[in-house]
Amino acid sequence: MRKILAIVFAGGHAEEMSVLTFKRPKSAVVFGGGYRMIDFALTNLSNTSSVSNVGILTQYRPFSLVDHVGIGMAWDFIGSSRSIRILPPHLKLSDSEWYRGTADALFQNMDFLNLHKPDDVLIVSGDHAYNMSYEPLLRFHMEHGADVTMAVTPVEKDPSRFGIVEINAEGRIISYMEKPKYPKTNLASMTVYVFKREVLEEELKRHAQSKTPSKSFHIYDDILPGLIERRRAFGWVHHGRWDYARTLDSYFNAHQDMLGDNPKADIMPWNVRTNPWSKSAPCRAVSRYRGSAIVRDSIICGGCDIAGAVERSVLSSGVKVGKGAIVRDSILWDGVTVEEGAVVDKAICDKRCVISKGAVVGCGDEIPPNIELPRSLTCGATVLGMDVCVPEGVRIGRNCIVYPNAEAIHFDSREIPSGSAVRVGIQ
Fold it and tell me: How far apart are CA 318 and CA 230, in angstroms?
């Protein structure tokens, strides 16, 4: 049996996610009410029997991610032969610097690869939601004698947003283009790769030692194009739900797809694992529905206290909805409070937000794109950052972004127009 080492890319900021990634990497963003984005990759790895050791590459504001992953116990990566290791940038005798990209992060951790000496290196992204055992991919890679195998999946809408792969009948990659204006196919790279270790090391060294190194050093820009020309590169097609959630629109729509009598994205059968022992773990207490509560077509996590109406929404743990309050078509993270008579209509609220009595988040018929992120926030959802307190009686329009820690002094009007942003100094 070939020895496999897994690497998870988990350090990205994702500017398109705006205030949701001000305090955390995208891999630590809450998804589906009770999970973090990285839970899906780690669950897939735990379900792949040939993977025993995992390295997690992280850089941007890693505290919440490190706390969440812990020692890997939640995914059974503990013991004398199984492990998870966090791999942040580190000081060396010379040329110490932050990771300049995905390939540079691998290059700076060549000692980790050499420590384990795997036959193949399985590389996955920590900010995608999907259900997959990597065993068929690894078997395909071995049977075809591939130097690199990319997992790809058909996408229905706007394939130009992704790295697009063209393959022949054998599965050999003919071409790869990152976000092409005119895609030749609809097969998108899932940012899941299997490399022969010696090939990966050779290609990383080749680029790092080139006379004209680039400021950034990424797999998709600097490694794959040349490798596809010189080596045996194959594409393995995955059929199944795959949520990239690159923009605020796609993040909101992914959660709406979890609802309904026949949800497009039913993640419950995936048996996703998460870490219930971290310091920031959600409350596992039971939820309470008071006599005045009305709950329809929603996902409700533990520890919620509901006295108002909740419709087509996803509530993380510890959310409180007061009497006469309405939560509709929304995503509320841990500890959000919606006070009596308040309305939250099509919103994403980060942790511990408070919507005070009589306040309205999400109102108005006009829905211009957000002024700061016109390509990321167009669906009409309003996004509140961590620890926002919306004052009594304030009305916030649609496609708005409210920065973390905003409070009464930051709202210069009782009416916040759609498409605008409420900023709060330096974040």
Answer: 54
Q: How many Cβ atoms are within 10 Å of 425's Cβ, its own excluded?
A: 7
**pLDDT means per 10 residues in the chain (427 residues)?**
92 88 94 96 96 93 92 93 87 59 83 92 96 96 96 90 92 91 92 95 81 64 82 95 92 97 94 87 83 98 96 97 98 97 98 98 93 96 98 97 96 94 82
**What's the chain's length in residues?**
427
CATH fold of 4-249, please? Spore Coat Polysaccharide Biosynthesis Protein SpsA; Chain A (3.90.550)
- CA–CA dist 135, 1 (Å, integer): 12
Cα–Cα distance for residue pair 256/331, rounded to 1 Å:
9
The one-letter amino acid at 378: T
Q: Which two tokens stand for residue 345?
A: 């209509």
CATH of 282-427, one of 2.160.10.10, 3.30.200.20, 1.20.1730.10, 3.40.50.300: 2.160.10.10
- Note if the pTM is more than 0.85: yes
